[in-house]
Please model this.
Amino acid sequence: MNMKKDVNNPGIAPKDRLGGYTVNKLSYLTDIQSWLYQLEHEGTGARHIHISNSDRENTFGVAFKTVPSDSTGVAHILEHTVLCGSERFPVRDPFFSMLKRSLSTFMNAFTASDWTMYPFATQNRKDFFNLMDVYLDAAFFPAIDELSFKQEGHRLDLEGEGTEARLVYKGVVYNEMKGAMSSPDQVMVRSMLNALYPDTTYSNNSGGDPAVIPSLTHQQLKAFHARHYHPSNAFFYTYGNLSLKDHLTFIEERVLNRFSRIDPGTDVPEQPRWNAPKIVAYHYPLDRSENPAKKYQACVAWLLADIKDTFEVLVTAVIEQVLIGNAASPLRKALMDSQLGTALSDGTGFDAENRDTMFSVGLKDVSESDAEKIEAIVFEVLKNLANDGIDPELVESAIHQIEFHRKEITNTPYPYGIKLLVGISASWLHGGDPERMLQLDADFNRLRQSLAKGRFLEDKIRHDFLDNPHRVRFTLIPDQEMAERENERVKGELATIRAAMDEAELERIRVDATALEKLQENPENLACLPTLQREDIPPDVVRIAPTPGPFQPPVWTYDQPTSGIFYFSGGLGAGNIDGRLLPLVPFFCYAASKMGTTDCDYTQMARRMDLYTGGIGFSANARTRFDDSGDCLPFISFSGKCLNRNQDRMFEILHELTTQVDFSNHTRLHQLILEYRAGLEAAVVHNGHRLAISLASRNFTPANHLQEIWGGIHQLHTIKQVETETDDDGMQRLTADLQAIGHTLFYRKNAKLALIGEKAILVQAAEPMNILTRALADGGTDGFVPPRLDVAPGFPMEGWSTSTAVSFVAQTFQTVRLDHADSPALSVIAKMLRSMYLHREIREKGGAYGGFALYNAEDGLFSFGSYRDPHIVGTLKVYNGAADLIRSGKFSEEDVKEAILQVCSEIDKPDPPGPAARKAFYRRIIGLSDETRLHNKENLLKLNRKAVVEAADRYFDNSPANKAVAVISSRDRLETANGKLAGHALSLQTV
Model:
């Protein structure tokens, strides 16, 4: 073992006893420069792993194997309900309350197919133990009272009066899953599990099938908790620079000493293997306004290796990258070249999250008869690779991609400590060794040795894919009657239940509704919950200044400890792009790195990028300057990252992309149009709340107008229009337009650039960087100027229809920007309204998955939004009532402090060195200085109740004037809402 010493935990050795724990294994993880401790608690059998290093962002998590035997959503509903009060913290929602009493960088809970996890991260030691206290009590000693079950899971309620009263289903999870199961990607993935694993827990919908959820009883929920949320079925995880002994003592005292070991019976058996493949079909709901002819999905899916076999998992990950990793990968290319579909099918790829792993590949937006053709293409490619051999460069490229992403430290989508936990959980919970997953050297060495013997991957493809009978040919079928049939089924079911009820049963429903409303309305004393104080908040802001180097502005260097990874970031001013071409800019960004160049076609470029970089890309940004002008600042960011050893190769690629990008391959360009459109369409239901806010915000500022054109529903409309003009003349025009955008951007005086990495690699960048900048054309003009835009007058009141069973409701109005004295108060008001009002009214009472307020300090806009919401009119009434609450002053200095904590937890959220420097560079482009940020935080920390009330009086009122509304929902729901909105009806559009 490495002889380095762990300064956080001196003196601990394998086989040591720490309280009731035994240290089973201690190892040093060279890849992430950390120590791994594996322990077991003797009395209960609870397992614990701890990763010790210098990271101040400490992480805790506890996970349980949760193996439902039906689709009632019991594990999902339990995840929600345990967070509704516990033994030592008997308040209605301690989890949500801790969001405002903490400086956490992450708090959440997850339900997967066979596990449930409760993780958090924070940089504050006091906060860490406060949160662990609440999390442990919630998980192991929850109240699970019946009213909380009805609020979070499902309940019957009455709508209407007297004899006209009708039953309806309500519940947060019920509505969440109605939204999820109207999304084709969710239906696809969950149905594939049902098809491939018919004999194990994965055949069930762990999130809950809305048709089955109402059958779950309160007693069944409590029984599931008693069996699954026991220390004998628990996996504890800690990470960071805090003391392991302190963690163990706390967990043992708070939880483990109260339990004895049991056999929870939660092991998931292997899925029995088939002797012959199957053909299956499932359905998903499609809106009546859409043409179903090309809305099918088809794929082939296989059951593969045991999740615990880390070598097999690594080999399949390499094969996945070889087959479909980039545009040049043989299987991906063959499928896309077939022109049968627009993009790879939902769920495509290697899934190493279940007891038995799986792999699927296919196409979306295909015709009804295409499944057999797609299967034939897949098998033809696999047979050719198995017979003729795999290009060794493809294998090297695949290994490089795995190596790069193993090495890079990022905090997206989760803090790094939580990313490690999520990455190892599936195998660990099924008996795998965490060290083997975190330290892949032995498996990589074995892979290299196997490859050296020849035909290793070819034989694996034959064994795991061609000769593997446990596979399905899967078709997902659009059904335009499905939503209506389900609505009618629910109506009939509720009518039958209603007809069988006597008056006493109806009165019980009314009593429950009243009790639940009283529970939701009653102010709570949260004094039992731990909290931080203002003095616990760091007074400064994180500053990352450029370091002196061989370059002068507009090139900046940032000397950062990036663990052997070099980052390149740049900005190209987009203000001079012709107004007619502006809507095409996001597609230009999408296509520029995927089209190839005059010297290198797109397949060669894709292979080079995967072989030598961790990714190169362009993206469109519409920002607002932080100077006296407050102008809209449009620019294209372009970035790349690579292992230090590949710096020269990455600069060669950047050089080609910025000087020789070529859009003349019309076949490839058409492929990218379809792929891009498919991606935008798939995002509508998942990002409905963000898209609704973008629609509502678009007429307030030029930057918000351009953001909607570039990233909202209007961008989807743009690419739909482009797709209708793909004849020869249309493609010629598009090629010319894209080239014109590039000719406006790629000038030396229009570029601002940043290099990020360790000092030695920055010095090495001097020559290739100079070559790159010299290669950019002379002339041109500075594009960091406002664009030529026509912003429409007035504010929208709109409804946008799409295929969804829920709604996303947004309202926006103008306030002031970050540099105004009222800005800190507005950021606090957003947090207060969410925690004190919107959460109760929209989630707890309304049954939506979430309701929130957002203060956009850059543009001076304030927005309300809801996610997976069963209501439209009621939610708009809630938004209008927000002004009354915040102007009434019916809140305390403690409420203000809690909101300040929430704002500061976002301000102070840490970034790894590379991304942190990149953010600093882009702040420099838009003129947001560290002094402005610090001044804002200083004023925030001084804020009091009086200042909040005064700011609320200035910006909040009940008048609909000067407020914009946008709702994304189904046509039926929008039309029903308009029937209730009288003189404020929504103008209806189609997504």
The longest helix spans residues 823-845. The first strand starts at residue 17 and ends at 18.
